[in-house]
Design a protein that fits this description.
Distance between the termini: 42 Å
Largest sheet: 8 strands, mixed
Number of strands: 8
Radius of gyration: 18 Å
CATH class: Alpha Beta
Strand content: 5-15%
CATH superfamily: Aldolase class I
Strand order of the largest sheet: 1-2-3-4-5-6-7-8
Length: 285
């Protein structure tokens, strides 16, 4: 029997709508360069704050994901072939907006032999050419466990390589059908073996019905795999068709989780109700 749903959404999860001159400048630059963002497609609650500071998380490789994670609002379906001009457009936006720390993620592309790894690598190369002072953080899918795909991404030398485990192993079948917890851990561990100096990052959401012990166990697994940057945030259902939230953690609970992560050994931790994997990414380095 499933636990009852929590009470109404608490007030600390209320955010302002994105408005202002800087927000408009970011939106216009992204439109002109024909770029999508996870900020919009995944309905991130921090879009107003981040765009208001001139930052955004670019979503490459189309608007359709080949999987259907039950927490995510990105559309699933049959995607179009990768656009070879997309990396140059990402670099152009980075130059125009003066990004010092650029986060690039993608839909999952199980239809591609390399899972989209070559497109990620091309983005890094283009940004290095046109905005050499910008740090590049890649938030990648699991590439279905392909070491060749991962090697291509690592060889492009991003400043940060992120891959989110999202939830605890027990809930994968319900939350992330098509993903495998151990495969995600192996991706991170393999990236660390390929380049031990590469900054590795992962994130998870809470509120699906996981226990505190399960969350701590995931933290320990991530640290053992080589991760040194960690994000923990509250799951918020994008719509009534997505998985319901089972618990709203308090601000104090997130503070306690951050303290536990630091005791495990993580030097860089961001934990809070509105924290997402790319939230204030530049300051987490």
């Amino acid at each position: 029997m499933k636990p009852p749903l929590p009470a109404a959404r608490p007030p600390w999860l209320t955010v302002r709508a994105p408005t202002g001159e800087t927000v408009e400048r970011v939106a216009e630059t992204l439109r002109r360069n024909r770029l999508r963002t996870v900020c919009r497609d995944a309905r991130c609650p921090n879009v107003g704050e981040c765009w208001g500071k001139g930052t955004a998380t670019v979503l490459i490789l189309g608007e359709k994901c080949t999987r259907g994670c039950r927490f995510c609002s990105v559309a699933s379906g049959a995607p179009l072939p990768p656009d070879p001009c997309e990396p140059a457009r990402v670099a152009s936006a980075a130059v125009e907006l003066g990004w010092k720390h650029l986060v690039v993620t993608s839909v999952t592309r199980d239809d591609l032999a390399d899972g989209g790894a070559s497109q990620f690598a091309a983005v890094v190369r283009e940004v290095r050419k046109r905005a050499p002072a910008a740090a590049v953080e890649l938030l990648v899918p699991d590439f279905r466990g392909s070491l060749a795909a991962l090697r291509e991404v690592v060889a492009s030398r991003p400043d940060v390589l992120a891959h989110n485990v999202e939830t605890v192993p027990r809930l994968y079948a319900e939350v992330r059908p098509g993903a495998v917890y151990l495969r995600s851990l192996e991706l991170l561990g393999s990236a660390h073996a390929m380049n031990p100096r590469l900054e590795l990052k992962s994130g998870l959401m809470v509120g699906f019905g996981e226990s505190r012990g399960e969350v701590v166990s995931v933290m320990e697994d991530l640290y053992a795999a080589g991760c040194r940057s960690l994000t923990v945030g509250q799951y918020l259902p994008p719509s009534g068709n997505h998985l319901p939230v089972r618990e709203y953690l308090t601000v104090e609970a997130f503070f306690e989780l951050a303290e536990i992560a630091r005791k495990i050994g993580f030097p860089r931790v961001a934990a809070g109700p509105l924290v997402r994997s790319s939230y204030k990414a530049g300051s987490l380095m």
